[in-house]
Design goal:
The chain is of the alpha+beta class. Helix content is 36%, strand content 25%.
Length: 107
Amino acid sequence: MWEEKLAIYDKIIATNSNFERKGKTVPYTSANGHMFTLLNKDGEIGFRLSMESGERFMEEYNTTRFKSHGAFMRGYVLIPERLYDDMGLLSKLLQESYEYVLGLPPK
């Protein structure tokens, strides 16, 4: 089950050549010193978005904030499984997430 979600996560990340997936046990992407996507232990995918974009995404796709290790991650939205086949949408959202962290002060 988790391996299947990892394959989906890797497929999403592969749509963008600006960065690579990192992490073995907790796969993630980062840029500018900030993580912006994550696959948690439960096989759920989270993307980091601006507050405005995150609120709009959660409302439009009837989803919630993303949780990892029992805590909500600030600025992250849960990607619903029903969207996993929509690579066009996920690729666009991935680019938006990447651009968002590039705009944050470097860590």
